[in-house]
Amino acid sequence: MKAGFLLAGAAVLAGRGFAAAKQPNILFILTDDMDSHMEALAHMPLLQKHLVNEGTVFSRHYCTVALCCPSRVNLLTGRAAHNTNVTDVWAPYGGYPKVVREGINDDYLPIWMQQAGYNTYYAGKIWNQHSVENYNEPFVGGFNESDFLLDPFTYEYWNATMTRNGAPPVSYEGQYSPDLTAIKAYDFLREAMMHEQPWFVVHAPIAPHGNVHFAADEDDEAKQSAPKYAARHAHLFKDYKIPRDENFNPAVQDGVSWIAKLPLLNDTVIEYNDEFQRSRLRALQSVDESTAALLQLIDDAGELDNTYIFYTTDNGYHISQHRMHPGKECGFETDVHIPMIVRGPGVARGHVSQAVTSHTDIASTIMELAGRPLENTDGSPMPLSIEAEVAASKTEHVNIEYWGLAIPEGELGRYGDANMTDDYGAAAHAAENNTYKGLRVIGDGYNLYYAVWCTNETELYDLVQDPFEVRNLLGTNHTDLAASLRIADRPIQPIVNRLNALVVVLKTCARDTCREPWKALHPQGDVASLHQALNAKFDDFYATQPRVYFTKCEIGYLADSEGPNYVNQFGGGIHEGHISVSATNKGGKQEGYNRKALDYLGPQHRISIWT
């Protein structure tokens, strides 16, 4: 997408009052684990008033990996997780040391914003495994001013420890973390508006992530519970229940791998889960209040007409859907379809955008607003105006990927035998074999999720007929329904052949190939959508494409265990994918990985498995 296209051209925007004396300011609010499907946004009245009613809701926005650290890296680099090679929250596949080793600390959004002339500020959580031990090894790059939450206290709502501008950690025991980080963001915003330079301010509260108290002893497990909330919100939502949609603790379980084997949740668990979500909604009220306060400060300073406000989260969340305990890490809509709201000059008020967007697009979007379009990212600028949305080439796809375990959260969560461990010493409360490659395709008349798991099981959901993803069309329970699927009047097998080829392209894509994957298959450029690819003249071509497969269920990105990395091109030739050098397996299992007692903070802060 060309520079300037994101808002449909300067001439249109000048007529809407977009022209400004300086580059626009950016306020970015990033929550942790916020859902779209359990009515979180509907229970934030100030957000509704100041952002939903005054901006655009991107109703088809996705994270590409449903786990906080890799998702945040994806968001702040504009590169897919298979290109950043940060795919977990802990070493060796993720966490702050991995961010540093991959060179991201010196080459990501805040650095680029500074190069574009912005003053940059950050308050709250940024990376997992950014701790009281390694906060200055090195300092987080790219911010004029910062105050970061630090492990092992990041997820303790009443016991935060933070580092301001790289200074030694300070304990804020007894202060409520979402309020604390909001105050710091408010102060940074006041500081930013005292200078002539445009500003980029991030507030990243931990809400509504669960409360986690790390084990002080290596023989103990971390204590997980529902998020904590301020006393002023304790009276709220007492009658709330998680929507009893079709995927809520379903009587007939579908899906693949460990999900297919989950038992029904009993009444005790369901009651606990309802209260867990009530606590999440209460924790979000601090974010609701602080968002309104930040906007009021901008308005009082006369800067609101030249400021863009982005509101989103790192990943979604499930509770009781598909019989699952609280958590994330899956490819279902609950986990990857997330809130995204933008308010600012030229952005339609009260609009719901149907554009298909993802976190991979955010860095490109912000840098184009800053006047420094990015060339080497995997995303495209989001169409922020109605004119841009109408004029945009219709992106249909979102690459979904995940490596590792599925970890139940909360006090009742359990997926395995407590005495069982995997090859890496992982505690067995988690579900193994949760590595998969997925694809969301949304176009004219179709809305699909397709995935291939590391067990080489496959799943396909038609969200037009099955919006809650409870009927796997590639399983054995719905053969009649699968036979009725029609897109462009084509049956299911030609459709699956196209989807499989698209996953082969996307699972190792980089830059242009991520944005326009069909060109890897049709270099002539005559195919740009699933509908066009379903032309019967391509049937033999797609039927003979290499298939996605796994040779092993790895817990990190080791490309040697994932095949293939090329597709045949229509008319002859081969298109080879991009594989990061650090994603290749040089001699088998990586050393130093023990989730049972990961010594990343020093022996006094060893932890048990959780995310």
Structure commentary:
There is one protein chain. A hairpin with a 5-residue loop joins strand 5 and strand 6. The chain has a 10-stranded mixed sheet, sandwiched between helices. Strands 13-14-15-16 form a 4-stranded antiparallel sheet, with helices on one face. The relative contact order is 0.16. It is of the alpha/beta class and 611 residues long. It folds into 2 domains: 336 residues, Alkaline Phosphatase, subunit A (3-Layer(aba) Sandwich), CATH 3.40.720.10; 181 residues, no CATH class. The protein is 24% helix and 17% strand. The protein is globular and about 65 Å long. It has 17 helices and 20 strands.
Could you give the topology of this structure?
Layout: H1 10-15, E1 25-31, H2 45-52, E2 56-62, H3 68-77, H4 81-84, H5 96-101, H6 109-115, E3 119-124, E4 145-149, E5 159-164, E6 170-173, H7 177-192, E7 199-204, E8 211-213, E9 223-225, H8 267-300, E10 307-313, H9 333-336, E11 340-343, E12 351-358, H10 362-369, H11 386-391, E13 397-402, E14 436-443, E15 446-453, E16 458-462, H12 479-484, H13 492-506, H14 512-515, H15 518-521, H16 530-533, H17 539-543, E17 549-550, E18 562-563, E19 566-568, E20 574-576
Task: Please describe the structure with a list of short key phrases separated by commas or semicolons.
single chain, Sulfatase_CS, 24% helix, alpha/beta, 611 residues, Arylsulfatase, disordered C terminus, 2 domains, 17 helices, ten-stranded mixed beta sheet, hydrolase, Alkaline Phosphatase, subunit A
Looking at the overall shape, the CATH architecture of the largest domain is: 3-Layer(aba) Sandwich
Report the CATH superfamily of the largest domain: Alkaline Phosphatase, subunit A
Largest sheet: 10 strands, mixed
The shape, in one word, is globular
Give the helix proportion (percent range): 10-25%
Individual helix count: 17
- How many strand segments? 20
Q: How many domains, as an integer?
A: 2
Instruction: Work out the radius of gyration.
Output: 23 Å
Q: What is the average of the pLDDT values?
A: 90
What amount of the residues lies in strands?
Answer: 15-25%
Which strand order does the major sheet show?
6-5-4-3-7-1-10-11-2-12
Looking at the chains present, what oligomeric state does this protein adopt? single chain
CATH topology of the largest domain: Alkaline Phosphatase, subunit A
CATH C-level label of the largest domain: Alpha Beta
Structural class: alpha/beta
Distance between the termini: 35 Å
